[in-house]
Design brief:
The structure holds two protein chains of two kinds. Chain A is an alpha+beta fold. Chain A is about 30% helix and about 25% strand. In chain A, the strands form six sheets. A five-stranded antiparallel beta sheet of chain A has the order 6-5-18-19-20. Chain B has one domain. The two termini of chain B are about 30 Å apart. The chains are: A alpha+beta, B alpha+beta.
């Protein structure tokens, strides 16, 4: 794994505009950054990222089965009582899921370490699945990459295949919903809807704020049609505590991601996985937080923080790093395993799982050890090293 | 190759040669209790017959399975179940197919070639069901994911909306990338 400087495509902004990628620059700061890329060997991708992702994914699904049968685990994950049966039923019915992203610390040597599962509202999808793919094709054509370079990225193919597979199980009308004023979230649902259309599924877009409630407790779209299935790029735990939330268990509306994903997008899954698989090479030691002082070499994360918010990190040397944010509530602790630096940048690897298949990689790079929403997206390539050349 | 062979966009792209606003793809789906009902709606006897035949064939593989006739009838009603065999000498009881779905892609108001069909079953409460996603498994989903039955509404429901904006409050100040 190397970080390789590379000339950006002169026309990348025009290409972004052409495909509706409007959030490549956020508040005047670059978000999409193709001034460099990460180069991996095929062995690193297949053995260190792809295989562990599928294994951890299977372990996580097994854990759902255990959690739905345990009030104690539901309690540990702070799942509100009125939603527990509904979540368990959604698992027993195997309500279809679409995707998730595992975040890994990895620098090319040793096993990748799982930071967390983003299994409810993972974003940076369009950048990883489409724009990164187009970058590789363009740079190959321009001769900027070694001939035969590849990319771990069949995300779009897998999304279309997944939608095609679950199409029959999706209730209609089917809408994709995100927060109205978030350009990134709106871009992500527009992309997912595009993939669904490519799978032959008729579906619409709806702002999450526009969802209506009928007198008899069902959810409606702007035409007063009862929504059959809602893809929501919106955290389940936020739906639970908002004013319409109480209607969810009896409204009959199918959700994607389904309610059972609330058990996996919760950082409480990390101590439970560690308890079930102690010493697993891809897991970091983790425990539920007792609120005491954070010892050296540990990180504290709220069960529900996103984008690296409200994380406290106590390094081995005693230094403390912390981020602010809107999240509170119960926390977990995880052994500190800081991200490696490449030319002063700290890459966090997002490994995508669509359906149950590990199918792609997206890298976010930050200048600090805690990856936040300011982290830039940097593309990657699989580059086979020439035979006989030793890489220092 | 570890990447998508191709990646195109339908609606997001402004590039030419793709679908335009006046050439939108939509789909039409219906739930029919007989080939005749299907023909009355679609005026396409060939497709309706093929859809029915395919649904009937799929019904054996995708219908829910019960160990006894009693268990099946408790869910699907008296006289609504039959003994079946999975081909490996395991017999079980499953509900009779009581209808079928037909979905077709539409272009400019006309059905395009090809269709999807699926069997439909009616439970003892009169509710319609179809096999859930992934029945048969393989591909992007592992076996076991989504092999149950899901309820369906054959016709879209309308309801008078009495309030909106009950979701979205937490979202105004942050993004959810996780």
């Amino acid at each position: 794994m190397r970080r390789v400087a590379c000339a950006a495509r002169p026309d990348w902004r025009a290409k972004a505009a052409e495909c509706g990628f409007g959030f490549h620059t956020i508040d005047d700061a670059p978000y999409w950054d193709e001034s460099a890329y990460y180069a991996f060997s095929l062995r690193q991708i297949e053995q260190d990222i792809e295989a562990p992702s599928e294994e951890l994914h299977a372990m996580a699904l097994d854990m759902v089965e255990r959690i739905v049968g345990s009030e104690r685990h539901m309690q540990q994950l702070a799942i509100p009582e009125p939603y527990r049966d509904w979540i368990a039923q959604s698992w027993r019915r195997r309500d279809p899921h679409l995707y998730g992203r595992l975040d890994f610390a990895y620098d090319g040597s040793g096993p990748a370490k799982l930071y967390e599962l983003n299994y409810d509202t993972p974003t940076s999808l369009f950048e990883a699945a489409f724009f990164q793919w187009q970058w590789l094709e363009d740079q190959l054509a321009r001769g900027q990459l070694p001939a035969g370079s590849d990319q771990f990225n069949s995300i779009q193919e897998s999304l279309v295949e997944a939608f095609g597979t679950i199409a029959r199980g999706i209730a209609r009308p089917f809408h994709f919903a995100a927060v109205r004023d978030s350009a990134a979230d709106q871009g992500t649902v527009a992309y997912l809807r595009d993939c669904a259309l490519q799978a032959g599924i008729d579906c619409g877009l709806l702002a999450i704020e526009d969802i209506g409630l009928s007198e008899d407790g069902r959810f409606t779209d702007l035409d007063d049609q009862v929504i059959g299935c809602l893809f929501k790029l919106y955290p389940l735990e936020d739906l639970f505590r908002e004013s319409f939330g109480a209607y969810l268990p009896r409204a009959g509306m199918q959700l994607i991601e389904p309610p059972w994903k609330a058990l996996l997008s919760n950082k409480g899954i990390l101590p439970l996985l560690w308890e079930a698989h102690p010493g697993h090479p891809n897991l970091l030691p983790a425990a539920f937080d007792d609120g005491g002082e954070l010892p050296r070499g540990w990180v504290r994360k709220p069960l529900h923080s996103r984008e690296g918010a409200n994380v406290a990190m106590r390094l081995d040397d005693g230094r403390t790093l912390a981020t602010s944010g809107p999240y509170d509530g119960p926390c977990i602790r995880q052994a500190c395993h800081p991200l490696s630096a490449f030319d002063g940048h700290h890459p966090l690897l997002g490994s995508w799982v669509v359906g149950d298949r590990a199918c792609g990689l997206g890298i976010r790079e930050d200048s600090t050890l805690i990856t936040q929403d300011s982290a830039r997206f940097v593309p990657h390539a699989i580059v086979e090293e020439a035979r006989g050349v030793l890489i220092a | 190759m570890k990447r998508s062979k191709t990646a195109a966009l339908l609606l997001m792209s402004t590039a030419p040669l793709l679908l335009t606003a006046c050439d939108r793809n939509e789909s039409r789906e219906g739930l029919y209790t007989s080939v005749e009902a299907c023909v009355a709606q679609t005026n396409d006897r060939d497709t309706c017959q093929q859809a029915f035949a395919k649904a009937e064939q799929d019904a054996v593989a995708t219908a829910p399975r019960f160990a006894s006739r009693e268990a099946c009838e408790a869910n699907y009603g008296k006289e609504q179940c039959a003994e079946r065999n999975d081909g490996a000498n395991h017999s079980f009881f499953g509900p009779l197919m009581t209808g079928f779905f037909l979905s077709q892609m539409m272009r400019n108001g006309a059905a395009m070639n090809g269709f999807n069909s699926a069997p439909a079953f009616r439970d003892s409460n009169g509710g319609w069901q179809r096999p859930a996603a992934g029945a048969g498994a393989g591909g992007v989903y592992r076996g076991g994911a989504g092999t149950g039955m899901v309820p369906v509404n054959a016709t879209p429901n309308r309801a008078v909306t009495v309030s909106r904006s009950g979701f979205g409050r937490s979202g105004s100040s942050r993004s959810f990338g996780g």
